[in-house]
Design a protein that fits this description.
This protein is an alpha/beta fold. About 30% of the residues lie in helices and about 20% in strands.
């Protein structure tokens, strides 16, 4: 039996869809109750029903609740029998669209229950117990007191003896155990408790006066399985040196100052814990080389700035061979944002493409340094785009594929800064090659229009899955008081299309268009880019 770890897993965002198709997004369960109270007050006749998302394959799913109103207080009661098709059509649907977990290491957000559980188990694990049982506590009552056991180790079938002519066939061994029928749960009187789901019913038992739900868990795939590779996050989180880093005494702020001057070992505060967790995500192991494409068909939305600073975040925090590739279909401007040593002849992607065949021989890899520029303390390399106009030769789709086929052998992570034409061959090749996408935009009306056009282009080109796993990064190019579109409005516009939205605050150091000095950026800006980098890495394995 694995060790039992307690985590706090909360529902961070909810979606309520009413019977008339109206959809409301709220961020707390109290807001859910307020919405239900309004609906019930406007629909006094008949019984209302609240359904959890039928497509949510999570162990705590509640099949249905009836909604009552007593002295203006919403009361939710479990439905013990299957509701009728008419009642189901008229029911309000509740979906949890974002989860957050917290433990001694801080907190983070995930868009699925399974990914939150996996991360919770990975980071909570001790090296000797890489797959702990989890006891979940939550401010969402349907989650409170749930116990999720560690996945059982994969069973290996015993070797079968050689068959004899007179032997009867060996009976097939049952690979698993049946799940007992769920016990009847106590009726909810004030707040919802977990009840049986109509699909894959869990086992419900009493545990210290709270319902404990033990759900089925699939056994993990064999290590190195091509269908389900080993969890990179688990391999990272169970390293002893990483655990030491995550629980080390506070280094920053007031607590860090006390530790330094009074030689104490005070634990870090919440802010520092979140930063450490973001760093841990950026540093997680990847199963192989990965490519990130930063896209937007609108110019002037900090796409190149974002590409460059993501390279800096990965280089400074993660390390390794990192390349930022300015892959503009005409002439890019990353060269003006990066470090260019004086007295050298700058080569670009065009020159590299002309000489790319020589790098089929890995022994000549040292010559790549003639075509890329080291970015100093940012610890990554930059490959500039050609500086020629549109009437000159450019890198097309075939050239991109040929160059990438060579470059990915030498770099662990490549960040591709794309151009502004979604119909350009090199733009399409970048998106096709990328393992994950980053949509760059800004808090301006024309920038958001460009982001929506980019989303339409990705969908039209068949990249809906990559879009759903993408991260949108809003750079505040104007102070919020001067912005033509509020950051909150931009977030609301983007959230339905992407996995996560991150915001980079306004920083005067980034408005000049000249060389980026990472150390001159404000602390808030540096931390925002760190969290953006962690969000991007969360989409990679």
């Amino acid at each position: 039996m694995s060790a039992l770890h307690t985590i706090t897993l909360n529902a961070a965002k909810y979606e309520l869809e009413s019977r008339d198709g109206t959809t409301i997004h709220v961020e707390s369960f109290n807001d859910v109750l307020r919405v239900l109270r309004t609906h019930k007050r406007n629909n006094q006749n008949g019984t209302m029903h609240l359904l959890m998302d039928r497509n949510a394959d999570v162990p705590w799913t509640v099949s249905a609740w009836t909604i009552g109103l007593d002295n203006d207080v919403v009361k939710l009661h479990p439905v013990e029998t299957k509701i009728t098709p008419t009642q189901r059509r008229q029911a309000i649907t509740l979906r949890v669209t974002m989860f957050s977990f917290g433990n001694e290491l801080g907190g983070y957000k995930f868009d699925t229950f399974e990914s939150a559980i996996t991360a919770s188990r990975d980071i909570s694990a001790d090296p000797g117990h890489p797959l702990p049982d989890l006891l979940i506590i939550s401010d969402f009552e349907a989650l409170d007191g749930i116990q999720v056991p560690a996945p059982a180790p994969e069973k290996t079938a015993p070797a079968q003896p050689a068959a004899k002519d007179d032997a009867s066939p060996a009976q097939e061994q049952d690979p698993g155990e049946s799940i007992p029928a769920p016990a009847t749960s106590e009726e909810m009187t004030e707040e919802p408790q977990a009840t049986e789901a109509q699909d894959n019913p869990p086992v419900i038992a009493e545990n210290n006066s709270a319902s404990t739900v033990v759900a089925e868990s699939d056994a993990p795939a064999a290590q190195g399985s091509p269908d389900r590779p080993e969890s990179a996050a688990r391999a990272f989180a169970t390293r002893a040196e990483t655990k030491s880093q995550m629980v080390a005494p506070a280094l920053d702020g007031f607590l860090g100052a006390l530790n330094r001057f009074l030689h104490l070992r005070l634990a870090p505060g919440k802010h520092e814990k979140l930063l450490r967790l973001a760093r841990a995500v950026v540093q997680k192991s990847l199963s192989e080389h990965r490519c990130i494409a930063v896209v937007d068909v609108k110019g002037g939305v900090s796409k190149t700035t974002l590409s460059y600073i993501l390279g800096a975040i990965f280089g400074r925090v993660r390390g390794g061979n990192i390349l930022a590739w300015d892959n503009n279909e005409n002439a890019g401007n990353m060269l003006s944002r990066g470090i260019v040593p004086s007295g050298i002849t700058v080569k670009t992607a065009i020159e590299l493409f002309h000489d790319i065949d020589q790098f089929q021989n890995a022994e000549l890899s040292h010559k790549l340094k003639q075509y890329v520029l080291s970015q100093g303390d940012n610890r990554f390399y930059m490959l500039p785009s050609q500086d020629q106009g549109s009437d000159k030769q450019v890198i097309d789709a075939q050239a991109f594929d040929r160059m990438y086929e060579i470059l990915h052998r030498f770099y662990d992570l490549i960040v591709v800064d794309t151009g502004n034409a979604s119909n350009a061959g090199t733009w399409k090749a970048s998106v096709q090659t990328a393992d994950t996408l980053v949509i760059a935009t800004a808090n301006k009306s024309d920038a958001m229009a460009g982001a929506m056009t980019t989303i339409d282009a990705l969908r039209a080109q068949g990249h809906g899955d990559k879009l759903a796993n993408s991260v949108a990064v809003i750079t505040e190019l104007l102070p919020r008081s001067e912005a033509t579109r509020s950051t909150a409005e931009c977030i609301a516009d983007l959230e339905p299309w992407v996995r996560e939205v991150k915001v980079i605050p306004y920083d005067k150091q980034l408005t000049s268009g000249g060389m980026i000095n990472f150390d001159a950026l404000s602390t808030a800006t540096q931390e925002a880019y760190l969290h953006a980098g962690a969000a991007v890495m969360n989409g990679l394995s």
